[in-house]
Design brief:
The complex is a heterodimer of chains A (about 425) and B (about 300). Chain A is an alpha+beta fold. Chain A is built from 15 helices and 15 strands. Chain A has two domains: about 35 residues, no CATH class; about 375 residues, Orthogonal Bundle (Cytochrome-c3 Hydrogenase, chain B), CATH 1.10.645.10. Chain B is an alpha/beta fold. A five-stranded parallel sheet of chain B has the order 2-1-3-4-6, sandwiched between helices. Classes of the chains: A alpha+beta (about 425), B alpha/beta (about 300).
């Protein structure tokens, strides 16, 4: 190595959002710095000020076009918390159906469109080929299955929310539109296919994990804290308590979302417009945590549904607990995909899902502040609003899934950069012949 | 011959891209007709790949999002240079999008709130290393470079995208409809005699009747009819997210003048009903409003 060098990846592709990677190498070839640069932001917290709080659920989904449903629901829950409102039970079930529909479509999208090209086409394939389009052409059955799973989730979300991007029907006090019997029957008819496709996806994913076992267990294994939501220890995405787990696997905090400021703090890096959220009592950077699929399956004791529990046990039996292998995010994603499918089936078969009693008649704005928390596909999501007597937002604070992850992503990036540039670890990995040659 | 297509994301939510992916099996009919030469959301080409293409070598370029940073402005200019036909894809590109609401404040106030004063921030500082500088305001992309086709929507529906792409791939023009959301809405409408406005959380909306007749601020009358009246169809007022009906330059001004005509209320009472006119009347197109343009101009003069 003759001089200092900077490796730049611009932009990072197959990513929702805007980011670059900057790796700085010293004269000795050692990695000096590894940065994940989030290169834009839109200032939502500021421009929510002055708005009718009941309309915040219309603004909030536009934070993220692939996970607008969690934003819609975290937002409505925050306003209900501020105004002291409990929506009818049936409305909560419809909302759960909505968030699970999104969980299903987002996890299918993430697995097949964002992640699978690396495994099925291969990490060293030419960039022009390493994408969903190639999968659709070379493995038409898999491609078709992936597209149909995404379609089911998106269409179900649209049947509830008006549109999957961006949903509109959640309102403080319930839902503006009932879920019709006609829609219930339409989606229930497709459940057998979805169950089969989910099982096929799990089988395919497990083959990929076996094929890439060396990569999964050796590349980018980093110890961090983990954060996720549970309900009496079971995996939960709509409403529960937040657990924080330390790198050894002990639960160090278990809080109600309203108390999030006891645990959550944001570090502003010099080199990114996304703050790094971390476990406040430990400080930055030691308290950096990760959120999302792997974090959730790490912090819970069990899954909420039987098939997901089976898949969860197999993952834990093979990788231990807590799992620090970053590639296992994909495995956990499939475990959650199974749970989303099972939750959807349970909810669609619940007679109350088509109830017309989905909105309170009297909803009064009041001065106060409220916190709404759900699990978005990529992690814990918090909306916190302050409202005045007229129910107008005076201040907003939001902690989105990305920010709960960027600190951990950067830590992983540093580890992988060292492995690749200092140890050439990528050349020593046992890699399979890609399924798509 | 397949058409070379590039899809670029400026600062945005990615919803336009998701809407395109949501063609799902419909993608199978479009894909053989096109060669995707740039689409960071899905395909691994980098900015330098796009920059090194010959000018005008892309048949159809689609740009979603708006310019919140100088890097966005650069990408927009590159897309213009490289594309024969450039499409303003989505309401951000056409009118600035929801982030245009940030134009109510100075850049310093925005940055201060996010990086210095957020409740949970422990190490306040403004990032400056390896991040592009922010633009002072959000402008509609159509004010920065010339576009050949406009396709508003937040996001445009999958069907809108299919219609536009199908037309453009076969070399046909794509024109926006004359219709409004009201024209696409099946609710029973009466002569408007609005005595009082309700907020959306108040009471119950009658699913058979026009929402505006019931006193809920439904903006379908002033909003371009591309979505198929999605929101009123699910008992929810239209917030105008697709932008104004064609030939209207200022969505909010159009709404305010129309409300003056149909609301049988004292002007003061009407004003009191909407304490946040910008959020109520310019959901995703404030950046394109006269008000925002005047504010931007005033700020620019002050800075000089």
């Amino acid at each position: 190595m003759t001089g200092e060098k900077t490796v730049k990846i611009s932009p990072v592709t197959r990513l929702e959002g805007h980011g670059d990677i900057t790796i700085k190498l010293g004269k000795d070839g050692k990695v000096k710095d590894a940065q994940f640069n989030i290169t834009s932001t839109r200032f939502f917290e500021k421009f929510l000020e002055g708005r009718f709080a009941e309309e915040a659920p219309r603004f909030a989904p536009r934070i993220c076009g692939i996970c607008p449903e969690p934003h819609h629901l975290a937002s409505v829950k925050a306003v209900e918390d501020a105004w002291g409102i409990t929506p009818p039970a049936a409305a909560v079930k419809v909302r759960r159906l909505l968030i699970n529909a999104k969980q299903l479509s987002s996890h299918a999208l993430h697995f097949f469109a964002l992640a699978a090209p690396d495994f099925l086409v291969g990490p060293f394939a030419e960039p022009a080929k390493r994408n969903l389009v190639t999968i659709v052409k070379a493995m038409p059955d898999v491609g078709k299955m992936a597209l149909q799973m995404m379609q089911f989730g998106q269409e179900l979300a649209a049947a509830i929310g008006g549109t999957a991007i961006h949903p509109v029907t959640a309102i403080p006090g319930g839902m503006l539109n009932p879920f019709s019997e006609e829609n219930r029957d339409k989606f229930l008819k497709q459940i057998a296919d979805i169950r089969q496709w989910t099982a096929d996806t799990l089988t395919l994913a497990k083959k990929v994990f076996d094929d890439y076992w060396d990569t999964i267990t050796k590349l980018g294994v980093v110890q961090t804290y983990y954060i996720g939501t549970h309900n009496n220890g079971a995996h939960e995405i709509y409403d529960g308590s937040i657990r924080v787990m330390d790198p050894e696997g002990s639960v160090v905090a278990d809080i109600k979302p309203k108390d999030y400021r006891k645990c959550f703090a944001e570090y502003v890096p010099e080199h990114s417009y996304a703050t790094h959220v971390y476990y406040k009592p430990v400080g930055y950077p030691d308290g950096v945590w990760r959120a999302g699929t792997l974090a959730r399956t790490n912090v819970v004791d069990k899954m909420a549904t039987p098939l997901a529990q089976e898949a969860f046990e197999e993952m834990r039996n093979r990788l231990g607990h807590p799992i620090h292998a970053t590639f296992a995010y994909h495995w956990a994603r499939i475990v959650e995909l199974v749970q989303a499918m099972e939750e959807l089936e349970i909810l669609l078969k619940d007679p109350q899902i088509v109830s017309k009693d989905i909105k309170l008649s009297v909803v009064e704005p009041k001065k106060g502040d409220g916190v709404g928390c759900v699990e978005a596909p990529r992690g814990t999501l918090i909306h916190h609003y302050w409202t005045d007597e007229q129910g107008i937002i005076t201040k907003a604070n939001m902690i989105v899934a990305t920010n709960n992850n960027v600190g951990g992503i950067e830590k992983t990036l540093m580890e992988v950069a060292k492995q690749v540039f200092e140890q050439r670890a990528h050349q020593k990995l046992k890699l399979p012949k890609p399924m798509i040659g | 011959m397949t058409k070379r297509i590039a899809l670029a994301q400026l600062t945005s939510c990615w919803g336009c891209d998701q809407s395109l992916v949501d063609l799902h099996l419909g993608l199978l009919t479009v894909l053989p007709e096109i060669e995707i030469v740039f689409w960071p959301a899905v395909v691994d080409f980098k900015l330098k790949d796009l920059e090194s293409m010959p000018d005008q070598s892309i048949h159809i370029g689609l740009v979603e999002g708006s310019c919140r940073t100088e890097e966005d402005v650069h990408l927009l200019n590159v897309m213009r240079e490289k594309s024969k036909t450039l499409v303003a894809w989505g309401v951000c590109s056409c009118y600035g999008g929801i982030q245009g609401l940030a134009n109510q404040w100075n850049l310093e106030e925005l940055v201060d709130r996010k990086f210095m004063k957020a409740d949970t921030v422990t190490d306040p500082r403004v990032p400056s290393e390896n991040v592009p500088v922010f633009t002072e305001t959000v402008q509609p992309n159509v004010d920065i470079v010339e576009f050949d086709v406009l396709l508003p929507g937040c996001p445009p529906t999958s069907k809108n995208l299919l219609d536009a792409l199908t037309a453009l791939i076969s070399g046909k023009p794509f024109d926006l409809p004359e219709k409004s959301v009201c024209d696409q809405c099946s609710k029973v409408k009466q002569d408007k005699h609005i005595k009082e406005f309700h907020r959306t959380h108040e009471g119950h909306i009658d699913p058979s009747k026009c929402l505006l007749d019931q006193g809920y601020l439904c903006l379908g009358f002033a909003t371009i009819g591309l979505c198929g009246a999605i929101c009123p169809n699910v008992n929810t007022p239209c917030k105008g997210c697709f932008g104004p009906v064609i030939r209207v330059r200022d969505h909010g001004a159009k709404i305010i003048s129309a409300l003056g005509a149909v609301a049988e209320m004292e002007p003061d009472k009407l004003r009191e009903s909407f304490p946040d006119p910008i959020g109520s009347f310019y959901f995703t197109d404030y950046a394109a409003s006269y008000l925002s343009r005047i504010r931007t101009e005033t700020r620019r003069k002050k800075k000089k």
